[in-house]
What does this fold into?
Amino acid sequence: MNRLVKVMLTSLATIFVGATITLVVVLYTTNDTNAGESESIDTIVEHSYESPEITTDLQDGSFVRIQFQILTDGEAAKEEISKRDFQISNILIKELAKMNKDDFKSGLAELEDVVKSKLNEVLIEGAVTDVYTINKILQ
It folds into this structure.
């Protein structure tokens, strides 16, 4: 029985050392060259879509004209967003109809977040990574 225990302990130690070495090799030899780096501006521009300019009224009767630059995570998402421009307009009209003049002046960041999340709900290919307001006029 002494010999059997020695063989089992040696086998378990060998398996443990082999698993540890395999784990270290896998973790440190993955070829992830983009880790920690941000996207280049060329890639960002390549995967972004300029929304149509929307003119609509706010809850208090003021009029607003607004346009967005929508950043996606890839070419497939950009193509899908460009086909869904009618949904972008719909989302914007519905969200802007809930706002008054003061909300619009101070709440552009929240509007951008809402547009981003609503677009991600309808997208099938890829995702929207960011939304920037590039043009706004309040009358």
In short: The mean pLDDT is 87. The helical segments are 2-28, 41-46, 75-83, 85-97, 101-106, 108-122. The two ends are 91 Å apart (CA to CA). The longest strand covers residues 128-138.
